[in-house]
Amino acid sequence: MGLAEKKVDGLVSYLDIFTTDNHYVNQGTLDMNPLGERDDNEFVSDLIKESVEKAISNCEECVVGEASTDVTVSMGEENMFEKLLTSVFSSLKGAKYSIFGIVAVTVISSFLVFSLHP
After folding, report:
1. In 10 A of CB 103, how many CB atoms?
2. Cβ atoms of residues 49 and 7 within 8 Å
3. pTM of the entire structure?
4. What is the dihedral of CA 109, 110, 112, 114, to 10 degrees?
5. 58 neighbors 66 (Cβ within 8 angstroms)
6. What is the pLDDT of residues 28-65, one digit of tens each?
7. What distance in Å separates the CA atoms of residue 33 and residue 38, rounded to the nearest whole number?
8. CB 59 within 8 A of CB 78
9. Who contacts 5 (Cβ-Cβ below 8 Å, separation ≥6)?
10. What is the distance between the alpha carbons of residues 91 and 88, in angstroms, rounded to a whole number?
11. Contacts of residue 83, Cβ cutoff 8 Å, sequence gap at least 6
């Protein structure tokens, strides 16, 4: 986008434009709409300049830090899907049996509460 680079010349030394495919610039046939191909270049470059000016006006002193750590990640074992299914089915089995107790306690409690108050 040479037009946008010209409009921000003097404001920033380098301009890099990133887009996502769920915003204005990529709505089109087969989701293929490179920035500026079918859009109003003047309008888009004005938006870019406005964004750069807004970003510059919001600059302030800050402290930057960095840290790193190592994390062990388990991606998946040979029988991981089977373990997951077993866990889900055992939870459902437990829920199936506990529902009878919950319903019984609820019915008895309701009967007692409503029978005590005429």
Report:
1. 10
2. yes
3. 0.42
4. 160
5. no
6. 555 555 655 667 888 888 999 999 999 999 999 999 99
7. 7
8. no
9. 15
10. 5
11. 77
On the question of pLDDT at 91 being above 60, the answer is yes
76: left (phi over 0), alpha (psi -120 to 50) or beta: left
Q: Helical H runs in the chain?
A: 2-7, 41-57, 80-116
Can you read off the two tokens belonging to residue 29?
Answer: 């046939």
Q: Report the distance separating Cα 71 and Cα 81, nearest Å.
A: 23
Contact of 32 with 38, CB cutoff 8 Å: no
**Gyration radius (Cα) of the chain, Å:** 31
At residue 9, what are phi and psi to the nearest 5 degrees? -60, 130
- Residue with token string 């769920």: 22
